[in-house]
Amino acid sequence: MTEMTASPPAAIHSGKAAQARLRRRYRAERRFRWICMATLGIAAVFLVILMGSIVSRGWTGFLATQMKLTVTLDASQIDPENPAQGNYRMLVVAALQNEFPEATSRSDMRALLGMVSNGAYVELTNLVADDPSLIGSTVDIWVPAASDLDMLNKGYIDRDSAEDLRRVDDQTLAWVDQMKADGSIRTVFNWTFFTTGDSREPELAGIAGAALGSFWMLLVTFLVSFPTGVAAAVYLEEFAPKKRWVDIIEVNINNLAAVPSIVFGLLGLAVFLNLMHLPRSAPLVGGLTLALMTLPTIIITTRAALKGVPPSIREAAYGIGASPVQAIAHHVLPLALPRLLTGAIIGMAQALGETAPLLMIGMVAFIVDLPGGPLDAATALPVQIFLWADSPERGFVEKTSAAIMVLLGFLVFMNGIAVFLRQRFEVRW
Amino acid sequence: MVMTQEAKHDAAQADAVTIGVDRLPRIDGHMKLQARDLKLWYTDKQALQGINIDIPERQVTAFIGPSGCGKTTFLKCLNRMNDTIEGVRIEGSATLDGADIYDRSVDVVQLRARVGMVFQKPNPFPKSIYDNVAYGPRIHGLARNKSELDEIVEHSLRRAGLWNEVSARLSEMATGMSGGQQQRLCIARTIAVSPEVILMDEPCSALDPISTARVEELIDELRENYTIVIVTHNLQQAARVSQYTAFFHLGRLIEVNQTPDVFQNPKERMTEDYITGRFG
Amino acid sequence: MPPTQHTVRSYDSELEKIDRHILAMGGLVEAQLRGSMEALVEGDRAMAQRVIDSDAQIDEHEREVDELVTRVIALRQPMAEDLRRVKTGLKVASNLERMGDLAANIAKRSLVIETPHQVPQREALRRLGNAVYGMTTDVLNAYRDGDAALAQRVWRQDESIDDMYNAIFLAILADMIADPRVISPGTHVHFVAKNIERIGDHATNIAEMVTYMILGSLPDPDRPKGSSVQGAEEQT
């Protein structure tokens, strides 16, 4: 460009060539912006598809179908001293026969019973146990419907298909229609989903056991990994001499953060179960294993948080005669705390969603009871999802997706807290 | 012997220019800080080449010199702030009231309470004004109760010329103050631990002229009670506030004398060239 | 002048400007002195008028130097030798301006004297004028070349100038006592001799300042004086 040497500096930026260069730049920037937005758009589309498919499959899991039974609590079938041993099957059959007198044959009666969930018997037991005076009277009671009915009610079974291909035969269909007309079938919010543990029956299955198991596990993980991780990070960042062995430790910590989680599961199996003989399937073991997995993450994020505190603060503290420990405790840690907590919460959120290591250490069993503490056998939310996803019953499909929604909800919530903490407590210096 | 200009400049490389102990000026009074053959290495690089200097008590001594000459490094030796830097090695001696400050038995924390430091960029803690000043006395246990602490805080803020401006808002964040006020707060914070020496590393370089004037006025007042050592790039400031001036170059102490002599009639060619703007 | 350059080159050019004005002033003062002596001793009235008219130029230079020095002090905050140089420039200019005035006075007086060729002590006066002219030239060279030794020699010459002036004074006194007709021209001659001696004093001041500028210290404060004449010697 010969003009450049001849013309004064001002002309470099105002000539035609300059305009052309500027236009090229703007075009390049526009392209870049479009690419970014397109990427975001694609990600958003995938997110929508993912969320959409999960929600569309799972939202019905939060609903439960119930049947109203008019049951005569025949004293001959129930022993007041021992209500649990009462022959409630008989009572239910009787109630249903009352409702549908045309059901006379044995197969008819099986079909009738097939409409009612096994949980009905539990309901009746609890009713009588709470109030033995009811024995002999006739009560109306809403009981959970069987899974097939539940699926029918929610529209998952195609009424128009051939009878052989349907799980619900025509006779049952007719009964269901009749009950609907009577108002004996209703759809309510599925509280049992949140209050009961796992079950063979989809309509009775809940995530409470898994949620509690996850809770105990996360508690153990937090209590073990947070103090250890923060202390290790503080030492490595502030006090460790710049020697070779310290460098080796740092490198190893960074590598550990990238190790596949199933390896930690193997470690947990070998050490916590085989060597230390801790109870299998206990949240304690799961928590310890995940603590090992989360530790590198916490160390790394804590170190980053500590590095984020400007050295001028430390210098000021030293200048007044604060010892290194005082400088860290009084100044550096409080200022690093928001970022530190954010990192810890994100680490916990990751731990919440881990499945593979828990499979290795046995938190995969079918456990009905709710765990009372970290030592009781339990399962965890992601594992529960894994188990349900494997189940053949139709009813578990919606439960699986519903459980996924709950898990995602928790993760979003935890990340939300992390963001809130960071914004609220960020200190400007 | 008349030296040509070139030869004079070559002398910069020669050790002969460095002040040996025998060439230190005779100063009356008690020497608060002394350095004898103090050398410092940053890993392999030698930053200080055997410094000999006396810092008189209750006077202001200014360290001047071009960038990288070691004046800040040497300043930081006087309260062992260089200890916090990895790979620093020190030989020779530095004494406070005659006692070696690098002796093993010396508690660094206590030394830094006796020899305070004010930094180039004001660095108040992100706490309230009160807490900033009270932090030092708290950790050193200088106050037995709240009212004593209040007294120390007020006294320090008054000494720093800040009391009238902040007495009504002691609980406000220190980071909300202007640069000049923050620097005076840092000075108040340093005074609050009752030091004997105050080291200042270019305290006014980040401040506007009015704040600079206030700080210089403050230095003048503080001289009555504290020994002050100030590193500055501003030659006029050095000439204004100090009684003694030391000129450093490439890790060596080239000249040290009473300030009027250094600025009107320097003995060394290098000093003359630096202060008249003929350097580099 | 110091050979090394300031990092900011405009600083050096400002100092050089001051030097040029002073050396120009110095040249003018030399010419004024020579011209006024000629006007007096040869009776050249035209020359006398030229000298009187040229004084304004010297005053103009002095104003320039004053302004330049003020600028340098305000903007450059000169230190050490720069400060001495600038201080010296100001004082030298002031002294040169006075020397110019005195030379113009001599020229004015020469117009008043009716019989210049009959002026008493004419030769002595010429010798005194030459001596002072020599001092002036030397001290200006010392300023230009940074020659402290030369400046000191000039400084020591003041004693002999004083002696020469005293001799002329005594001689004129004797002449006036001997012949009352000599009183009028003799008084004029005395004033002229006094002016020349004052010019010599100013040259000595300049020599002092030049020594200070180069060496950083003034010469011995007890400047040697000529022998005092009863009651008629002024304090310098």
Features:
heterotrimer, A: 429 residues, mainly alpha, 2 domains, C: 236 residues, elongated, disordered C terminus
Q: Give the overall pLDDT of chain C as a whole number.
A: 88
Q: Indicate the radius of gyration of chain C in whole angstroms.
A: 19 Å
**Spans of chain A of 5+ residues with little confidence (pLDDT < 50)?**
none
- CATH second-level architecture of the largest domain in chain A: Orthogonal Bundle
Overall helicity of chain C = over 70%
CATH architecture identity of chain C: Up-down Bundle
Give the overall average pLDDT of chain A.
87
Shape of chain C: elongated
CATH class type of the largest domain in chain A: Mainly Alpha
Q: How many domains make up the coordinates of chain A?
A: 2
CATH class of chain C: Mainly Alpha
Question: What share of residues are in beta strands of chain A?
Answer: 5-15%
CATH topology of the largest domain in chain A, by name, is MetI-like fold
Low-confidence parts of chain C:
227-236
SS-based structural class of chain A?
A: mainly alpha
How much beta of chain C, percentage-wise?
A: under 5%
Largest sheet, strands/sense/barrel of chain C: none
What this model shows, in words?
The complex is a heterotrimer of chains A (429), B (280) and C (236). Chain A is mostly helical. Chain A folds into 2 domains: 62-189, no CATH class; 208-425, MetI-like (MetI-like fold, Orthogonal Bundle), CATH 1.10.3720. Chain A is built from 17 helices and 3 strands. A 3-stranded antiparallel β-sheet of chain A has the order 2-1-3. Chain B has one domain: P-loop containing nucleotide triphosphate hydrolases (Rossmann fold, 3-Layer(aba) Sandwich). Chain B is built from 11 helices and 10 strands. In chain B, a hairpin with a 2-residue loop joins strand 9 and strand 10. The model of chain B has no long low-confidence stretch (mean pLDDT 90). By secondary structure, chain C is mainly α. Chain C has one domain (9-215): Phosphate transport system protein phou homolog 2, domain 2 (Methane Monooxygenase Hydroxylase, Chain G, domain 1), CATH 1.20.58. Classes of the chains: A mainly alpha (429), B alpha/beta (280), C mainly alpha (236). Chains A and B meet through helix 13 and helix 14 of A and helix 3, strand 6, helix 4 and helix 7 of B.
